[in-house]
Amino acid sequence: MSLERKDEYDHNAWLKERDLSVVEKTYLMTLIWFDRRFRLVDYLEILENMYYKINLQMPKSHTEQYNLDNKFWYWYPLYALGSFSVIAYLVAALTGALLGFYYAPSTAGTPPESYALLTTIMADQNFGFMLRSIHRWSAQVMTAAVFLHMLRVYFTGAYKEPREVNWIIGVILLALTVGFGYTGYLLPWNQLAFWAGQIGVEMALAVPLVGEWAAQMIFGGFSLGQPTLQRMYILHVFVLPFVVTALIALHIGIVWMQGIAEPH
Ligand code: HEM
């Protein structure tokens, strides 16, 4: 796949033989400089091969195959809800990482340290109020978009063969999105967070057989405290981001391979 390379190659002589402008010469010299060190051209060639392979593998859509005139659905805005979910997720991830610079999970003190830190972010950090608001809004937009995306997939029958696996991955993604929302909701450790946590513990305890074990695993005990907040924090900033990012990549990879479904 890679280009044949010579051990010695007089690039300067090659460049001199050609009638090139200063701009062209500078461009080529720069490219050669990087290529000799990082084998850029090899990687570009690999990328190009991948691009053509993927394009050749893409199945023709129903409309393309039968040359149907009515292609209005290509531009149907509801088909963008999946991408809209991705965008909201990226915004939430970016603003979440920035909030993470100033936040720490701690229930110590009155008011609790986590709550005090969020108040500080909003009152004292430049653009802090905006940062927190964008994070909360993007999280809510993501939840709404994912739900609407699911409805669009359902009502256009896009979950049917061969897309069942992607529907199941989607159901998991919806549950994890709600999980993102719930764990994030507890992080400020204010009254709303505390009582939402209390409901969570009681719901876990109400599960037959494994209830107590689940409460201990997820909430760190039967009553709320530092172990609860610590768990919510790790789930929110470490576990869920990895799992959700990987699943979204898989989900979109499958859409790429199968092509988008068309309403029948
Ligand atoms: C984090 C959540 C999710 C993200 C980021 C996401 C992203 C996407 C994207 C970008 C597409 C391409 C087509 C489109 O935009 O409509 C898509 C298609 C699809 N999604 Fe999702 N999705 C998510 C959740 C879900 C859920 C909750 C379900 C259903 C339970 C689902 C099932 C599907 C199916 C079956 C397709 C193929 C549809 C077709 O071929 O027309 N996804 N998803």
Description:
The structure is a single chain. This protein has 2 domains: 11-57, no CATH class; 72-258, Cytochrome Bc1 Complex, Chain C (Up-down Bundle), CATH 1.20.810.10. It is built from 11 helices and no strands. The two termini are 42 Å apart. Helix 5 (81-100) packs antiparallel against helix 7 and helix 6 (113-124) crosses helix 7 (128-155). It is mostly helical and 264 residues long. The chain has helices at 11-17, 22-38, 40-57, 62-65, 81-100, 113-124, 128-155, 164-186, 191-205, 211-219, 226-258. Protoporphyrin IX containing FE (HEM) binds at residues 79-83, 85-86, 89, 146, 149-150, 153, 158-159, 163, 166-167, 170-171, 173-174, 177, 248, 251-252, 255, 260-261.
